[in-house]
Amino acid sequence: MYKSIELDLSNSKEWQEHLDRIPESNKDIYYSPNYYRLYEDLGDGTAKCFVVTNGDEVALYPFLMNSVEGYNLKEDYVDIQGAYGYNGTIYTSLNEELIKEFDKAFAIYCSDKKVLAEFTRFHPILENKEFSKTRMKVTDDRETVYLNLEQEIDELWQDQFSSQIRNKIRKAIKKNYSSEVLTNPSPDDIEIFIAIYNENMRMVGADEYFFFNEQYFRDTFKYLSSNSYLLNIKDEEGNIISSTILFKYGKFFHYHLSGRTEDAISWASNYLYSESINLAKKLGAEVYHFGGGRTPAPDDSLLRFKKGFSKTSSIFSLGKKIYFPEIYSSIEKKWNEENPNLEEKYRKFLLKYRIKKDL
């Protein structure tokens, strides 16, 4: 008999128990209650997890819920989207009956909660978009790069790394660059990372959202202590010139957030990636996901850089659904009228009405 339940962080133990029932190959850190605790504390919304079960079958879908405010609505509406990273439903299997029952139960849930709209960033390695194709509009967004870690380091070096990447890594080694891995970074260690990260975000002109508050970085190593690593690259004088936060969860390894100083030579980034691959191998990860470019463009410079470390890629897809079209259209129209300078830039954004005005 199929059953459905809504959980929040007060039920994090039960949330984790359901997550533990899903095969390792079908889940990742982005679906854990502690990962969602990070973003609820950041102020991104109230963490929820919708679960459907039937005997040994489980389908689990975490998201953040927010009230829709400021549009003089006659009733209280909310919207839902996944936390920063990858989202969507994960499951024990792509059983058609499980998908059908999940879709039915979630439709009732969204009607009861008055969910205006839903936005999802599907996991490009798990390819969990397949579970949601019957209930959401799914579109491919961009290419992402991942590395199969079954080969030995020497084989990866020859078979996967481009000659340009290998040359820059050699230059870094010749310049006596070094690395350190911190599993329990001190407050001072985290402060150094924050300074480097923010400096890099300013250099690349990142959106305001990516300047996370300081507590977020501290909480990352608090809530995800058994899954998080801080990797620093030092120059010949011992100065930290590049740094990254990495995640290891089950078989997966992820490049989460990173930065380099303004005066760091490009070799620093190449060496950082190389050392992070060594760490992933050492920790027993099977797949290292680097992510994609800054844009969906196939010639995006960041995407090209990541492809220098691996010849394998996957597609990152988005899911969108509007539950109350007339209400949504009225909000969208009002937002467009109030933000004519932003209308074209955010034309394809489902939840654009949440974007700050007069940017």
From TrEMBL:
Its EC number is 2.3.1.-. GO terms for molecular function: acyltransferase activity. Keywords: Acyltransferase, Cell shape, Cell wall biogenesis/degradation, Peptidoglycan synthesis, Transferase. It comes from the Bacteria. The keyword Cell membrane does not apply. It is an enzyme of class 2 (transferase). Belongs to the FemABX family. This is GNAT family N-acetyltransferase. PROSITE patterns: FEMABX. InterPro entries: Acyl_CoA_acyltransferase (IPR016181), BioF2-like_GNAT_dom (IPR038740), FEMABX (IPR003447), PG_Glycine_Bridge_Synth (IPR050644). Residues 165-295 form the BioF2-like acetyltransferase domain.
